[in-house]
């Protein structure tokens, strides 16, 4: 249905849901939560399609000639296959086509098709169009397209300008993520391995916590090239992009080789930049040494950047430490049906709206009402735990810097280790992050575990087989499970499979 959207109302209450057991300092989101959110005028004056019925003036679409038989959606698709010179020529014919040849997504695609050397030589001009054309902002034509009415053009612009405060504040009490001061490894292993939570007093001793401001990163690493989705840019250039861009989904700097590029040490050495928090205990993927899959990343992004709904790779858990800025998280347990997220039968493909803003506008209200929904803000100096298999969407509520690491926790009931083993064994086509010369990650992992944690591996494989309905050879030999109440040798260390409220076990 055509829209006549002029504004998206904001919430009036500026309070953030703080959860349990921790403190929360106000940030930019809280400060703006009480201000109504109004979508500004489109830079070309383009209006939503519904406004056409309220306008007494001419409709620019009447001037497109033979292009008129194409609906807006189809016209936008056709223009995705047009090169730079043809976009400029076509856009010069009338205001309607000028507006359709102007969106930055078209010019972003053209930029990404450039040879790397050419792309690197172009100075960022505040938009993809101006950058490709090497056109300073003050020289760009100011064409009035106020008689162009199109949801296809206006909706991405509206999504770019939504006020995040209306979505990330006023979190219902039932949804609030637990907030804790800190945990010991024993506490984490016994109770928290399968629960999301925020720790407010865990990373204060990290040197990067005080050193990594945006200005300091720019000063020390401005010439270092980092990966930001589809581009490899020097940090100085990415910082310019962060300050000014028109993207509905801003590029997210997400670099797994940052430690080598920045020449920093990670660990408990005297001159280390940071280290893995003790509370998460042993990381079983460490048995792989240099052959472990990609597992740690530097994350930098402007406000509105982030990740749409996904699960972390290879069945791993993760922690995400915010060094600067703040992030909003909305999460669901592994078996939840997340509104607006469609998963193939084998879980190999996930389809969801194209941008975070689209999902927030269309599905956030419905998702927030689900009993499984967990939400929270992770602010600077805090660290958030992502349990294995949990769906999560993350968005920066302000420009920020974070560090994240995926890991395989060791817990008494070994539920999460069994999930990783099942993933590596039964979904080899979905395994990611390993070097190409590692042909069978499952065999490699089990071989290394057998050397260092033989009894742990035996228990985890037993649990994995029972989850998948398989019988291990030993079970068959002793007749275990053939009839109700049958007994046989157990690899367990004590404690029934269903004991406690920690890892979800198979009874």
Automatic annotation (TrEMBL):
Source domain of life: Eukaryota
Q: Where is the JmjC domain?
A: 265-424
Q: Which InterPro entries match?
A: Cupin_8, F-box-like_dom_sf, F-box_dom, JmjC_dom, JMJD6_ArgDemeth/LysHydrox
What ranges does the record give for the region Disordered, renumbered to this chain? 1-42, 472-507
Q: What terms describe the molecular function in GO for this protein?
A: cis-regulatory region sequence-specific DNA binding
- An example Gene Ontology cellular component term from the record? nucleus
User: Which SMART domains does the entry mention?
Assistant: FBOX (SM00256), JmjC (SM00558)
Q: Where is the F-box domain?
A: 64-110
Which residue stretches does the UniProt record annotate as biased composition, category Acidic residues?
Answer: 498-507
Report what the protein is called: F-box protein
Native organism: Tolypocladium capitatum
